[in-house]
Amino acid sequence: MKTIGLIGGMSWESSIEYYRLINEEVRRRLGGLHSAECVMYSVDFADIEAMQAEGRWDDAGSRLAEVARRLELAGADFLVLCTNTMHKVADAVENAVSVPLLHLGDTTADAVLRAGVQRVGLLGTGFTMEQEFYRDRLASHGLDVSVPGPEDRDLVHRVIYDELCLGVVRDESRRAYQQVIGRLIDAGAQGIILGCTEIELLIGQEHVAVPVFPTTRLHAEAAVAAALA
């Protein structure tokens, strides 16, 4: 089994999910008392969030590149960046190490295409929905990606940072997300990408009428497949 290097802490609420899902998938595949060979570095998210808010993406890239180097020195055979938004600095992480990075955008796109879906709605932080780094990665696989309108984007972003990253899951926010998703479906989305690792704390397939693509679970499953290959 290869050793998975997890760059976590953004937020730790979703990093817990990564650790749980990876180990559950190893146990499902291998049975018995098997669990994942992995190392995790969990950053202080307050520092990273400040860099995001201030547009200091080069600083954020340097910080996560340092983390990547430490994980490689700790024995990681490949890296998993446990956050959608910080894939904006994926190149900085990849360039800092000699081991590969399992890109979340690629694993998500693969799952969407396997499901026979091409037109998808994307939910995530404001950075993920509004900037090109993530949408373009999905589009490079042939996907047609749409995002909510400005007011809906603000709502989705606020719930992530003010609630989900703090472990707060509210039925009222779930209903608001369902309304946002409904408008994406009305506009032609055939599936919905939950493009922020915390959104899976709030929304599941049972809440949506079209296929949902939970990026945390998909990334975790892809990490296990790579570790056991």
From TrEMBL:
<comment type="similarity">
    <text>Belongs to the aspartate/glutamate racemases family.</text>
</comment>
<keyword id="KW-0413">Isomerase</keyword>
<protein>
    <submittedName>
        <fullName>Aspartate/glutamate racemase family protein</fullName>
    </submittedName>
</protein>
<dbReference type="InterPro" id="IPR004380">
    <property type="entry name" value="Asp_race"/>
</dbReference>
<dbReference type="Pfam" id="PF01177">
    <property type="entry name" value="Asp_Glu_race"/>
</dbReference>
<dbReference type="InterPro" id="IPR001920">
    <property type="entry name" value="Asp/Glu_race"/>
</dbReference>
<dbReference type="GO" id="GO:0047661">
    <property type="term" value="F:amino-acid racemase activity"/>
</dbReference>
<dbReference type="InterPro" id="IPR015942">
    <property type="entry name" value="Asp/Glu/hydantoin_racemase"/>
</dbReference>
